[in-house]
């Protein structure tokens, strides 16, 4: 057993060692020798100082210094090795593999300009007849001097080719050199050269001449003869065939074609036979294959890029064949695992994309503030290696403000490199403007205006200090995802193809005939840098990724729409665990709200005193559930927004990165917000309907005054109705009164968010700065929600605390004032918001008369102040002052009493509503029928529903119509019925007061906790009504005052949902105010109609 344990431990140790070793050997970055900081856009200077010695060349294809083979020397530009001309040796082309070329002495003959063959120095004169003209060739003198022939006459230059582009030959058929009279000066490279020839057909040839009067005599100009096209030295068919055979490709007309799609023109796609590919494809492939010419290899790679990286194209097939052929020797052999960077060939395609994207060897440590040492960096330095279409390397360049077609402020345009700053520089431009801007970054600065190609790197100093004499230093290759590549356009990411090289603008490949307009052009419409923090260590980053989307257009087409251009940088966190936790919290919160909703459903059933649920019960349950779900979503969304606001905005060292709005989880966040505001709207409509359809009537306790007539007969004076009118008006006024002020809340919102610029806190940057919002900054919908919802709730809570703690206690309490007014007026109010339950506010006065003179009232008030009268409450003899003075009660009546109320009064009111609606419009009659159908009828009575979050019950559905038509005057029979019902309730109150110990109770603890009605009323036939002391003024549930949280949640959701769509706090505030005003108007209008109908007070008395 001990041996087994020992073997197991040894195996584990070995596996750990291997794992650590494998992790440690992952190397993707490489060092670059020399300081190339000032070597943009031209020949790099002083190669000796860059590669350490003049015998080393800098190979731009692999970005490394290499020693020249024996017999070769560094070319003057420092970027290539060439056979030493002074030795008279030529380069013999090879078989495509190392050694790519060897040298052979030509002595005593001369070396050709391209170093590929030996030429004799012809001492004889020769003439060539071209289209009737004679071109005189003058013989060269002597043998070759240092590998070159010499012209005898002044003003002459050496030529190697005749007018047909074939090498000149001597009498013996050997390749030779001759001299020709020309004004062309010798080139800067020490080689005189002949201008190319042009032809209008296969037989008529005209030589190009130096530009007359040109300041640069090294330039040749096309002849004006006919419509001549300048030849580019096309190789013979035999040579092209040899190249194709060597690289195992088949040449056809499609080999030189470029496809353009989604053009948005009269034709959506077009295929062009590229003049550039036709002229250069096999020539560059041949030079790359036979001579390992790095410029030609670069050019071939660029042509593969122009086919949109189509691996089946001839250019890419040639490229791949050469990469495979030369894989035995690679650049930067220290890279591990090897990336397959074959010598002489640019690195274009990634082989192990997924593994590469998750490598953890990017060693720089991220910081959100300016680092005090070299251990961390606050800005990323991206570096471009730039090559022209023809393969000429132009040097390194820091990206900085480069590549941004939309331009921008000089102070801001490089902010995208600051770690943690999401940067969006988007704009729209006409195609002409796009091309003008793209030519700055996409074409060379010389007259050739060649397409530029970029290899992208990011500098990775790994915590070391930068060397003053070296730039760039350690480069980490950046993978590029081109969305136009077919495999990158699908939803799956496992098959994505990443590349190394991209371009900004190409206007060359689409030219079919030299001198004509391009059939199609391609430009980079979208560039997006994506930087992800590592999951194991958030201070480290994975390799950045650049995503490029190209657009293709027809330059000759008159486009009427503008082009969308974008340059973006986004940061993310691969180790985010918040979303799984958030989902768990969301489930937990919804379970809690679900349990609360279920208790409300049970409570509603008890308040209605029904066992079998009906349709209206189902509707009520659904609407109440909508309110609970929307409230739960507000909490869930606020938790998400608050988390990101606290842990992202407040961090100094990297902890997490907030996802952008296009992230899947953020899309879920936005969808939940839309669902929440929709459900809140349903719940609000349900609550408005319920609050505008409860039953309410007033009990006037005033007794008629008895007077004696002149004849000595006692008569009773009718009690005035004006006190009831006054109470009804006051009740009407407080219906839509709120604990908070919506206009004040929104005013403070605009003050903080717009005036004090707190909206700047929604910018995706790890800082709490509230600076003015800049054009490139990106805002998060979650941060905006956290700001909007959080600030609105805080402002509302502040108002609530002020009202409840200070204003109600030291200034006035509207609800308490109304209760006092009832006692002073000797009027009680009965409210039935459900079928068999509601509220009773006791207003019976201890004064002899309330309908009296001012002097009498003042006298009665003084008696009350002096405690000469009993308590105002329903139970004045209670043992505690709190119980004795309490005037508010929750009331639970019996089914029999409800039936009597409906049969005696509500049925008559129903008839009055039906009569008043006769002759009205179709909409009016429809509303009347809806209201009539929702009336109760005996035991099957179905009443209006409601309750918001706290009172999901039913009240009768009379009144509350949408049309405020003139009130119908109550009939005598209806008034008599109302007086009869009033007497019944007065008898009930008197009976309850007399038996307060049995029927006026305090809620048991569990009933307080669950807000459940007493079971004795709901389950027993013939039971007596029960009154619960209401110390929290629960009757406000039928008023806006009692549903403040529901109104606040509705305002929050409306505000944040509108802001999510328009991204403007000001517009969202205005729209929220408009919606809120609509809700207030509906509540006050319908509520007034309901009071008029239920209390039989003509609506004209409600002002």
TrEMBL record:
Transmembrane segments: 576-597, 618-648, 668-689, 744-764, 784-805, 1038-1058, 1064-1086
Statement: the UniProt record of this protein carries the keyword Transmembrane: yes
Organism, as annotated: Micromonas pusilla (strain CCMP1545) (Picoplanktonic green alga)
Coiled coil (residue ranges): none
Name of the featured protein: Predicted protein
Keyword vocabulary terms for this entry: Membrane, Signal, Transmembrane, Transmembrane helix
Gene Ontology, cellular component aspect: MKS complex
UniProt keyword annotation of Transmembrane present: yes
Segment forming the signal sequence: 1-23
Gene Ontology terms describing biological process: cilium assembly
């Amino acid at each position: 057993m001990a041996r087994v344990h020992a073997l197991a431990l040894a195996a584990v140790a070995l596996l750990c060692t291997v794992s650590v070793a494998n992790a440690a050997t992952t190397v993707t970055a490489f060092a670059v020798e020399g300081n190339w900081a000032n070597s943009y856009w031209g020949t790099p200077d002083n190669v000796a100082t860059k590669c350490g010695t003049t015998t080393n060349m800098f190979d731009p294809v692999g970005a490394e210094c290499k020693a020249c083979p024996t017999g070769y020397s560094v070319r003057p530009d420092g970027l290539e090795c060439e056979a030493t001309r002074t030795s008279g040796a030529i380069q013999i082309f090879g078989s495509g593999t190392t050694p790519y070329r060897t040298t052979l002495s030509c002595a005593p003959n001369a070396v050709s300009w391209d170093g590929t063959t030996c030429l004799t120095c012809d001492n004889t004169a020769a003439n060539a007849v071209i289209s009737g003209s004679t071109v005189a060739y003058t013989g060269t003198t002597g043998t070759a001097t240092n590998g070159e022939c010499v012209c005898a006459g002044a003003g002459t230059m050496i030529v190697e080719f005749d007018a047909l582009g074939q090498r000149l030959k001597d009498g013996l058929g050997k390749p030779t050199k001759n001299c020709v009279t020309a004004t062309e000066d010798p080139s800067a490279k020490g080689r005189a050269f002949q201008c190319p020839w042009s032809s209008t057909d296969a037989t008529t040839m005209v030589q190009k001449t130096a530009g007359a009067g040109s300041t640069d005599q090294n330039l040749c100009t096309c002849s004006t003869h006919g419509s001549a096209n300048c030849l580019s030295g096309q190789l013979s068919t035999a040579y092209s065939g040899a190249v194709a055979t060597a690289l195992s490709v088949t040449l056809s007309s499609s080999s030189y074609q470029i496809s353009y799609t989604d053009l948005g023109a009269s034709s959506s796609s077009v295929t062009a036979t590229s003049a550039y590919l036709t002229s250069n494809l096999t020539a560059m492939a041949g030079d790359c294959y036979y001579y390992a010419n790095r410029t030609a290899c670069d050019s071939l790679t660029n042509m593969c890029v122009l086919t949109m990286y189509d691996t089946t194209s001839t250019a890419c097939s040639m490229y791949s064949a050469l990469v495979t052929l030369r894989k035995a020797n690679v650049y930067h052999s220290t890279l591990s695992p090897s990336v397959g960077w074959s010598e002489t060939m640019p690195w274009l395609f990634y082989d192990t994309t997924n593994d590469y994207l998750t490598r953890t060897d990017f060693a720089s440590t991220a910081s959100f503030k300016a680092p005090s040492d070299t251990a961390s960096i606050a800005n990323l330095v991206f570096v471009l290696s730039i090559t022209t279409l023809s393969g000429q390397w132009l040097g390194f360049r820091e990206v900085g403000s480069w590549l941004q077609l939309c331009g921008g402020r000089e102070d801001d345009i490089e902010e995208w490199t600051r770690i943690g700053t999401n940067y969006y520089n988007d704009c729209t431009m006409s195609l002409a403007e796009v091309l003008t801007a793209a030519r700055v970054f996409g074409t060379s600065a010389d007259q050739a205006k060649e397409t530029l190609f970029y290899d992208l790197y990011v500098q990775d100093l790994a915590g070391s200090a930068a060397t003053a004499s070296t730039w760039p230093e350690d480069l980490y290759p950046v993978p590029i995802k081109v969305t136009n590549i077919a495999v990158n356009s699908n939803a799956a990411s496992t098959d994505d193809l990443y590349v190394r090289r991209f371009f900004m603008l190409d206007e060359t490949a689409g030219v079919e005939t030299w001198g004509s307009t391009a059939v199609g052009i391609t430009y980079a419409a979208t560039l997006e840098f994506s930087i992800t923090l590592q999951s194991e260590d958030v201070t480290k980053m994975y390799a950045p990724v650049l995503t490029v989307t190209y657009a293709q257009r027809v330059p000759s087409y008159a486009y009427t729409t503008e082009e969308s251009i974008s340059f973006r940088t986004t940061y993310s966190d691969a180790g985010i665990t918040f979303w799984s936790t958030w989902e768990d919290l969301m489930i937990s919160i919804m379970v809690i709200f679900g349990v609360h909703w279920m208790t409300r459903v049970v409570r509603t059933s008890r308040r209605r005193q029904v066992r079998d649920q009906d349709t209206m019960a189902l509707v009520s349950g659904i609407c109440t559930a909508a309110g609970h779900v929307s409230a739960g979503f507000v909490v869930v969304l606020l938790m998400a927004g608050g988390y990101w606001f606290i842990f992202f905005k407040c961090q100094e060292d990297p902890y997490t990165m907030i996802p952008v709005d296009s992230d899947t989880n953020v899309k879920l966040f936005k969808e939940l917000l839309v669902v929440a505001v929709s459900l809140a709207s349903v719940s609000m409509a349900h609550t408005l309907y319920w609050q505008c359809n409860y039953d309410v009537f007033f009990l006037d306790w005033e007794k008629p005054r008895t007077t004696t007539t002149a004849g000595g007969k006692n008569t009773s004076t009718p009690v005035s109705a004006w006190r009831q009118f006054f109470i009804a008006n006051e009740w009407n006024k407080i219906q839509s009164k709120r604990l908070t002020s919506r206009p004040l809340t929104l005013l403070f919102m605009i003050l903080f968010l717009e005036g004090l610029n707190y909206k700047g806190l929604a910018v995706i940057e790890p800082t709490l700065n509230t600076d003015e919002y800049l054009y490139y900054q990106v805002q998060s919908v979650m941060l905006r929600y956290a700001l909007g919802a959080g600030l609105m709730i805080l402002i509302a809570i502040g108002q609530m605390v002020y009202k409840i703690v200070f204003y109600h206690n030291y200034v006035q309490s509207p609800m308490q004032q109304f209760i006092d007014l009832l006692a002073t007026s000797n009027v009680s109010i009965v409210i039935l918001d459900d079928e068999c339950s509601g509220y009773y506010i006791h207003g019976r006065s201890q004064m002899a008369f309330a309908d009296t003179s001012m002097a009498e009232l003042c006298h009665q008030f003084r008696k009350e102040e002096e405690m000469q009268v009993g308590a105002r409450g329903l139970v004045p003899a209670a043992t505690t002052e709190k119980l004795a003075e309490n005037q508010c009660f929750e009331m639970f009546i019996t089914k029999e009493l409800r039936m009597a109320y409906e049969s005696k009064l509500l049925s008559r009111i129903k008839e009055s509503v039906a009569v008043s609606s006769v002759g009205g419009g179709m909409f009016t009659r429809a509303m009347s029928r809806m209201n009539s159908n929702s009336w109760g009828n005996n035991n099957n009575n179905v009443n209006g529903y409601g309750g918001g979050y706290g009172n999901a019950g039913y009240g009768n559905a009379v009144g509350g119509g949408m049309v405020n038509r003139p009130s119908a005057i109550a009939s005598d029979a209806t008034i008599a019925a109302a007086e009869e019902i009033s007497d019944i309730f007065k008898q009930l109150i008197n009976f309850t007061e007399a038996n307060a110990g049995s029927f006026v109770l305090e809620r048991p603890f569990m009933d307080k906790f669950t807000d459940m009605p007493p079971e004795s009323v709901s389950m027993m036939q013939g039971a007596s009504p029960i009154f619960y002391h209401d110390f929290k003024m629960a009757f406000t549930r039928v008023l806006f005052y009692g549903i403040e949280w529901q109104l606040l949640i509705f305002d929050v959701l409306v505000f944040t949902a509108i802001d999510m769509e328009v991204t403007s706090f000001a517009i969202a505030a205005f729209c929220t105010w408009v919606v809120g005003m609509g809700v207030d108007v509906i509540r006050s209008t319908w509520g007034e109609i309901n009071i008029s109908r239920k209390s039989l007070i003509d609506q004209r008395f409600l002002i």
